[in-house]
TrEMBL record:
Belongs to the THEM4/THEM5 thioesterase family. The keyword Transit peptide applies. This is Acyl-coenzyme A thioesterase THEM4. It comes from Chanos chanos (Milkfish). One of its GO terms (cellular component) is ruffle membrane.
Amino acid sequence: MLRRGFQLVKGLGQITGQKFSTGRNGITIRPLLSTGTQWDTGSPFQTIRPLTMSPWPFSTQPRDYSLPNASWSEEMKRLYDHYNALCEVEVEGGGKRKGPWRRLPSYNRTIKYATGGRCLSKVLQAKARLFTRNIEEQGAGFEYVVFSNKQEKRCVCVFQAGHLLEGPPGHVHGGAIATIIDSVTGTLASYLSGPVMTANLSINYRSPIPLGSVVLVHSSLERTEGRKTFVTCQVTSADGSKLHTEATGLFVSINVGHLFGA
Ligand SMILES: CCCCCCCCCC(=O)SCCNC(=O)CCNC(=O)[C@H](O)C(C)(C)COP(=O)(O)OP(=O)(O)OC[C@H]1O[C@@H](n2cnc3c(N)ncnc32)[C@H](O)[C@@H]1OP(=O)(O)O
């Protein structure tokens, strides 16, 4: 029973991305699901606090990684607040209506908790995570939030690069920069054109990005041609005064069956 309980919570941790750890004297659990079920693992392990169990083994309330957390710098929070405020506009006589901008929520699977992928075993399916959201330690990897503006066919990402993204000493790895560019341009392309895959990404690195700094990743639609969506991208310092990186991307619309073995 004890072993079964431990395997289950460990499995849940892998599936939900939530934190469970084994202490010297047993299982220490920071339950994030709240359920009414009390599991007593018995001595020497401490009582596992109530867990909410659903018939579907995935959390129904996955973490939205694009919301502020304790690792965000003042600059990151200020920029988040700035763009978040543009998501609503005041109307005459009081009240608010939706503004031109949207904050895009972000989870650790591309399609929220969908299984899929050609030839993936069930174990791999359960463990698969979105590359940019697979570091659980807050502030260590990619901290970012994307805001999109459908009317203007563009988006902006506020990105704080954590210490695990180091390339040259004290600066962000070029592959990490390519990753956030691919994610932001891909998000814009799929927001405007539906399911797409990156066919081409061309990057010019103009000036290094200091580790821990906050930068803006701007992406705009250049044009569409049939199944092809062309986008541009610039990574700048938070105040816009310095250009760090420029890129262009080509995204090709796909039938999702392309990914699911059809
Ligand atoms: C919502 C959450 C968002 C999260 C964001 C994450 C973003 C991450 C995005 C990725 O990283 S995707 C992973 C990396 N990309 C891949 O693995 C793609 C691998 N390549 C493919 O699967 C196929 O090559 C591809 C789907 C891109 C295209 O194959 P298709 O058979 O569907 O299309 P086809 O080869 O017929 O090409 C269609 C058009 O695109 C053009 N094209 C395709 N690849 C090209 C290329 N590389 N360069 C220039 N043009 C290209 C091609 O010439 C043609 O132009 P025309 O219509 O004018 O004839």
